[in-house]
Structure formats: C-alpha cells, structure tokens
Amino acid sequence: MAASTTSLVGRVALLTGASRGIGRAIALRLAQAGATTVLAARTKPELAAVAEMIRTSGVEALTIPTDVTDDQQLETLVNTTLTRFGHIDILVNNAGGGPPRTPVVKARVKDWEWTVRLNLWAPLVLTKLALPSMIARRRGTIVNICSSAGLVGKPGEAAYTAAKFGVRGFSQSLFEEVREYGIKVSTIYPGYVDTALIPPNRRVDRSKMLSPEDVAQTVYEVVVSSARCCPLEIILQPQHDPVKT
Ligand SMILES: NC(=O)c1ccc[n+]([C@@H]2O[C@H](COP(=O)([O-])OP(=O)(O)OC[C@H]3O[C@@H](n4cnc5c(N)ncnc54)[C@H](OP(=O)(O)O)[C@@H]3O)[C@@H](O)[C@H]2O)c1
After folding, report:
1. Ligand 1 centre from 95 Cα, in Å?
2. Cβ contact 115:99 at 8 Å
3. Ligand 1 lined by 190 (C-beta under 6 Å)
4. 64 lines ligand 1 (CB under 6 A)
5. Could you give the count of Cα atoms lying within 13 Å of 236 in the half-sphere of its Cβ?
6. Contact 191, 215 (CB under 8 A)
7. CA-CA distance, 230 to 225, in Å (whole number)?
8. What DSSP string describes 183-202?
9. 90-93, strands of its sheet edge to edge
10. Atom of ligand 1 at shortest distance to CA of 119?
11. Could you give the CA distance from residue 18 to residue 240 in angstroms, rounded to a whole number?
12. Active site residues
C-alpha cells in the first residue's frame, strides 16, 4: 500500500451514503488527499454539513441529494456529476442498511424489496452508469462497502445478507470484465463499525468496534494502491471482539 501522503488532486470521487457514518468518513478522507467529492444521500442538511467541512479545507465538494433506491435519481446523479466535472475516477457504493432483525417467516416482502434495492440493486445500477466514463479513460476505482454479512449468514437478516452476498458476486464478475481497462474493483467487508446503523445494545461494547475512519483509511489505501495490483477483497474485523460473552 502507498504512503498516506499520495495526492488525489484532480480526481473526482462519487460516494453514496456520504451524509454520515462510514460514507462521511470516506468523503472526508478522500477530500483530505485533495479529491473532488460528489456527495449523495437523502438528508440534505447532513450532506451540506459534510460538504462545508470539505470546502473549508479548500477542496471542492458537490452535494446531490439522492435516494439510491430510485433508478431515475441514480441517472441524475451520474449525469449531473459528468456535466459538472467531465469524468468519474472513484465510485464508492456505500449507502446501505436494513430493517430491524426479523425472521424470514415474519418478514414483510416490501422490506425485502427495499433492502435488496438499497444494498444490491443500487450499486449495480450506479456502477453500470459510471463505467463508460472510466472505460473511456482506461482508469478508475470502484469500491463496494459490503459487510461481514456478505460472507456468513446470520439469523434475522436474511435479505440484507442475500443482498451483500450478491454484491460479492457482482464485484468478482465485474473485476474480470474491467481489469483489462485498468479499472480496480474492490469489496470491503467490515465487521462491527461504530455508526448509527448499530443501535444501542448492551451485548456489544462500542469501544471495541471499528471506527468509520478505519474503513475510510482502507478505501483511501485501495485508491492509491499500485496500478499493477487490485486489492480485490478486504475483510476488516475489530481486533477485539465487541460482542460480550
Ligand atoms: N456499521 C456497521 O457495523 C457496518 C458493518 C458492515 C457494513 N456496513 C455497511 O456500511 C455501509 C454504511 O453504513 P453505516 O454504518 O455508515 O450506516 P449509517 O450511519 O446508517 O449511514 C448510512 C448511509 O446510507 C445512506 N442511505 C441510506 N438509505 C439511503 C437511500 N435510500 N438513498 C441514499 N442514501 C441512503 C444514509 O443517508 P440518508 O439517510 O441521508 O439517505 C447514510 O449516509 C452500509 O452499506 C452498511 O451495510 C456497516
């Protein structure tokens, strides 16, 4: 991995779920290295606050309020980015989440549809829309924020797990298609990260979780890795188990 000083000045990074949590941390980390950031999520005030932090450090940031479960809004997101900046160098498919844990037999099909749209369908569609810009320039990095739920199934989150497993399959296939263009595809599988996605729970010690900045630093290291190699899959686990026994 390259040193933490590698500059991203001149690169355009499009990030979903950039309003808080892991996506916010990734946006700040890439901007710290000089990347122009395009910030997408639904909550306008939170997006604006992240953009303001970035601009204060003299780096350009554009907010595009977007519900990623809506294909039309994904098209607008990519078209607006390309109109403004001309290209996309880095795509981070980060927006995600799921309903409260519910067994399959009790789950609502409507919740499944939303979960799959948010965690799987949106990354597929957004990647398809951003790819031509990368292929034309024969460079680019696509980072998919998956989950340890993309590697091992757990009870109560079957649809979320199915979607995250799907991200893994998509990423592996995509890499085989685009490696010849110099495009990196990297999937990151974090364990517990201390964000609002993990509700307060007496069984989990938050001080032992990963921080959003741990994931953000990993994304940065993927982006600045040598053009010869692609960090295809990265599993990030907290050093000490946050689940109390
Ligand atoms: N926290 C963990 O322990 C953990 C572990 C493994 C993987 N992950 C993954 O990491 C990613 C980020 O999670 P996080 O922990 O940072 O969660 P978070 O703090 O809840 O943030 C989720 C982000 O996704 C955005 N988002 C949600 N629904 C959206 C929609 N329909 N359209 C656009 N944006 C939407 C949210 O913004 P708005 O609400 O403003 O739209 C927010 O910016 C997710 O893919 C998650 O599955 C998290």
Report:
1. 4
2. yes
3. yes
4. no
5. 22
6. no
7. 7
8. EEEEEEEE--BSSTTS---T
9. 61-63, 36-40, 12-16, 90-93, 140-145, 183-190, 233-236
10. 45
11. 27
12. 160
Q: Which candidate, 1, 220, 183, places its Cα nearest to that of 88?
A: 183
The 10 Å Cβ neighbour count of residue 165 is 18
Length of the chain: 245
Query: How many other CB atoms sit within 10 Å of the CB of residue 54?
Result: 23
The tokens describing 51, both together, are 């953009």
Q: Which H or E run includes 221?
A: helix 212-223
Best residue among 14, 15, 16, 20 to mutate for probing ligand 1, ranked by most atoms within 8 Å of CB: 20
Any atom of ligand 1 within 6 Å of the Cβ of 213: no
The alpha carbon of 174 and the centre of ligand 1 are apart by a number of angstroms equal to 23
H/E element holding 14? Answer: strand 12-16
Render each residue's pLDDT in the chain as its tens digit; 245 residues.
Answer: 444 579 999 999 999 999 999 999 999 999 999 999 999 999 999 999 999 999 999 999 999 999 999 999 999 999 999 999 999 999 999 999 999 999 999 999 999 999 999 999 999 999 999 999 999 999 999 999 999 999 999 999 999 999 999 999 999 999 999 999 999 999 999 999 999 999 998 899 999 999 999 999 999 999 999 999 999 999 999 999 999 88
- Torsion, Cα 69 72 75 81, to 10 degrees, reads -80
**Pure H helices in 117-188:** 122-137, 158-178
CA-nearest residue for atom 4, ligand 1, is: 193
Which one, of 212, 110, 98, lies nearest residue 163 by Cα?
A: 98
> Which domains are present in the chain?
12-236 (3.40.50.720)
